[in-house]
Design a protein that fits this description.
Blueprint: E1 7-10, H1 16-27, E2 31-34, H2 39-51, E3 56-58, H3 67-80, E4 87-90, H4 105-133, E5 136-141, H5 154-174, E6 179-186, H6 198-205, H7 216-226, E7 238-241
Parallel strand pairs: 1-2, 1-4, 2-3, 4-5, 5-6, 6-7
Helix pairs in contact: 1-7, 3-4, 4-5
Length: 251
C-alpha cells in the first residue's frame, strides 16, 4: 500500500459493490469512510479494512432521510475524516423493479431520495470545498439499465439515467475548478444481495463478449481508476463496466 493523504466517502458501502469500492480505495492508501444503515455490517467491513493494514472509519447513514439529515451526515462524515473530503462515491442504491402500476409509494419515495436527492445534497455540501482547494473527485454509480428500455423497473432506470445526467452537469459546473466528476455503469453484477438470481445472471452473461457476469471488484477497479491521477483527462463520462452488455450484440 502506498499511503496518501486523500480521504473518501463511499455511500452504501456496507456490502456488495460499495464494500468492494471501499476496500479498493483503502488498498490504494486512501482513508475511507464506510457508511450505510446496517451498523453491524458497516463495522465488519471497517474492521476488515483496518485489519488488512489500511485506514477506514464507519459512520452510519440513512440517505432516504430528509435533506437536513443528509447534510448532517455530510458534516459528521467530514469531521470523522479530519475535516477534509477529497473523494465522494455516490454508490448507495435501492433496487426495486416492480411494474409501474404496482410500485408502492414508499419505494417510489425511497428511490428518488437515495438515487437523486441524496447525491445532489452530498455534492452540494462537499464539492464546493473541493473546488476551493482546486482538487477532488466524484463518482456516481449508475446502471446498464439506464440506457435500455425494459418492461420493468421504469423508475429505477430513470433515476439511474438522472445520475448520469447529473454527472455531466456537475463535470461542467465543478470541473473547471479542479473537481473531476464521472460515473460507472455496472452490468449484471453478482453480489450477496442477489444470490437467488446468480444462475440467471450467469446464463445471460454468456451472450456478452466477456461471457461471465460482472463482479463487485470489477466495478471497484473502475472507480479506483476514475478517482486516481491517472484519470486526469477523464471528465463527465460514464464508464460501462458490463462485459460489453450494452455496447454489443453477438447474435
Amino acid at each position: 500500500m502506498t499511503s496518501t493523504n486523500k480521504t473518501a466517502i463511499v455511500t452504501g458501502s456496507t456490502s456488495g459493490i460499495g464494500a468492494a469500492i471501499a476496500r479498493a480505495l483503502a488498498a490504494d492508501g486512501i482513508t475511507v469512510l464506510v457508511t450505510g444503515r446496517d451498523a453491524t455490517r458497516g463495522r465488519k467491513i471497517t474492521e476488515e479494512i483496518t485489519g488488512a493494514g489500511h485506514r477506514a472509519v464507519f459512520v452510519p447513514s440513512d440517505l432516504a432521510g430528509e435533506p437536513a439529515r443528509v447534510r448532517a451526515f455530510a458534516a459528521e462524515a467530514r469531521e470523522a475524516l479530519g475535516g477534509t473530503v477529497d473523494i465522494l462515491v455516490n454508490n448507495a442504491g435501492i433496487y426495486v423493479t416492480r411494474p409501474t402500476p404496482t410500485l408502492e409509494d414508499d419505494d417510489l419515495d425511497r428511490m428518488l431520495a437515495v438515487h437523486i436527492r441524496a447525491p445532489y445534497v452530498l455534492v452540494a455540501e462537499l464539492a464546493p470545498a473541493m473546488a476551493e482547494r482546486g482538487r477532488g473527485a466524484i463518482v456516481n454509480v449508475g446502471s446498464w439499465m439506464s440506457r435500455t428500455g425494459l418492461p420493468f423497473g421504469a423508475l429505477y432506470t430513470a433515476t439511474k439515467a438522472a445520475d448520469e445526467q447529473l454527472t455531466r452537469a456537475w463535470a461542467a459546473e465543478f470541473g473547471p475548478r479542479g473537481v473531476r466528476v464521472n460515473a460507472v455503469a455496472p452490468g449484471i453484477t453478482l453480489t450477496e444481495g442477489n444470490a437467488a438470481a446468480h444462475d440467471m445472471a450467469k446464463a445471460n452473461a454468456k451472450g456478452t463478449p466477456a461471457g461471465v457476469p460482472v463482479q463487485p471488484d470489477d466495478v471497484a477497479a473502475a472507480v479506483a481508476f476514475l478517482v486516481s491521477d491517472r484519470a486526469a483527462m477523464v471528465q463527465g463520462t460514464t464508464l460501462d463496466v458490463d462485459g460489453g452488455l450494452t455496447a454489443t450484440r453477438l447474435a
